[in-house]
Amino acid sequence: MDIKEFRKELIEDVRSTAAAYGEGSNTAFVNIIADNLVSAEVIPDFTNAFYLGQGIRNRKVRIDGYALDEFDNTLNLIVSDYNASEEGAILTRKDAEQIFQWPIRFIDEVYKNNLSQRIEISTSSADLIDLFVRNKGKINKYRVLLFTDRYISGRIESFEFGEYDDIPIEYQIWDIERLFKIFLAESGRESIEINFTSFLPNGIPCLEASNEGIIDYRCFLCIIPGKVLADIYDFHGAQLLEGNVRSFLSTKVAVNKKIRQTILTEPKMFFAFNNGVSATANSVTIENKPEGKFITHVRDFQIINGGQTTASLSNARFRDKADLSDITLQMKLTEVNEDIDETQGLLQKISRSSNSQNKVSDADFFSTHPFHIRMEQISRRLFAPAVKGAQHDTHWFYERARGQYLQAQMRMKKREKDRFLLQNPKKQLISKTDLAKAQNSWRCLPHIVSKGAQKNFKEFAEWVDKEWSSSSESFNERYFQESVALYIFFKHVEKLVPNQTWYEQGYRANIVTYSISLFAHLLKKQYNDYTLDLQIIWNKQEVPEVITNQMAKITKSVYESITDPSRGNANVTQWCKQEACWKRVTDLDIVIDNKIESILLHKRDVKSEVRQAVREQKVITGIEAQTEVVNKGVEYWSNLHTFIIDKKIATFLEMQALKIACKLPLKLPNSVQSQLLLSLVEKAKLDGWKE
Question: How many Å apart are CA 512 and CA 576, to the nearest integer?
């Protein structure tokens, strides 16, 4: 796929999405791009807030949505330039400068022209105004993101920071070329490149600390001025921080009081008092100079420990007008060889180890959790039933890492690609955040889902991590089928809501998650011994009419509840994030139509089917373990045996299994022994063994 094909597919995606959800093409375009930038960790979340009008002196005012990054109080303002114009349309600097002003004027109208009095209170743009008012004095930076289906002019290299009432404004253009690059990025996000010589003449002084002969990584100890670190953070924002760690830190105090106190009162002692930062990069350029070694350039730079330190430096300079010129701190920079197949896993291990002093669970590093791998494996081998006269079965493509679906097609010839798309239609692409939204809605956590993709996903990850530790076999083919059924249900309600006569183009996401949660709650309340037979949705690949009719009633009641003038918070978006909102919704007096009984299943029957699915998964897990043991080969197990004998870390049963593996292919460990062997490998790695 080249960039022209990408743009064509994007426009087709916009058209089909707009038609499916009964919304304008511009709204569909913004939602598609925003969803991908959330996945790529460019923005923490996204809320629609379309407003188009005139302000002071008849100036054009426009905004399409927003996202508040609570970690560093950056308010992202989204504005769109979409017209599905002919191929090759160019966005000039003049065009961009003009469009960038539209959301800035929105701010002006809020603070200086009483915009709140001219907007209906129960609209998403009114919620944005409320956010401005509540956070006045707290916002550290505005970031204006321009989404466009055009190409930017080659003359546009960058935009200088602006300012509004002493608050800096950063401008970013997300044109077709930049979007294409991020869709193809192996890491799932935009690569951050930093030229340190633009901050310091020689770059960053360093000492190489890694051992000779290591090809996986190089490690450097550096001294970095606090001002330089703050400058880099001001430009790249929270995107500079490794995503899982940022998610963890966002639940804590954003600015550490002790760090702030040192910055303000004892800046020269900062190096002695602070632990510094740890970072990774895929490429590090070193220059030898008479003064020593200097790092001049890094690519795919991520801070994996020291996020609070970094944000505190920036915040103190902005809030307290602190002078950072006397502050220096240590930085450990690890360059990971991107040509090594296990690069991503190594990065996660470094990140996990660097944060070992914090209570960061495996769920915080969920992208490498075995749950993901199993869901991916099941999705590739399990066919969904053919429906509507189709003569072929299809897969639901589970995207364990963002961009897998597109990357799978990159090197395919046309015939191969056509066959791939026939078996893996785009409408059956499901991401991990999609799964988390559908599952948490069904688990009656709509207030968590309403908090945004990252926070919702973190909660889901914690639940999965706990359940996996208890019984990993419960995540099996049946679980996958029912997860897809819930996703089909979720998307069905998303399309149902805009077609209702009462719908007024706002809060669809909140209405959908609350309605599904309420339906699940009512089923438990009114049919305690029964549960919805999700296998019916899986087998038909669609939602039965009896559910559709029930959801039409429920969604209306939910909408009226969350927008009721007596709600606990005038801001509907914020109200939906509170558990009190969910409590009020559960108090709604709704009786489910008894026709629903035709698609319910008694819980005793469910338990029987679940036990059978667990037994089948144990067999599959055992076969997979045996396959992996055989593939590693006798030499591998002999080397491990030598290591284990010296370290004496294996149990009797593990040693018995290892002795059998050392006799491959004459003897073969059974499934239980194979799983013991794979666990032994992980134990040996923790003790210093290298494969």
Answer: 12
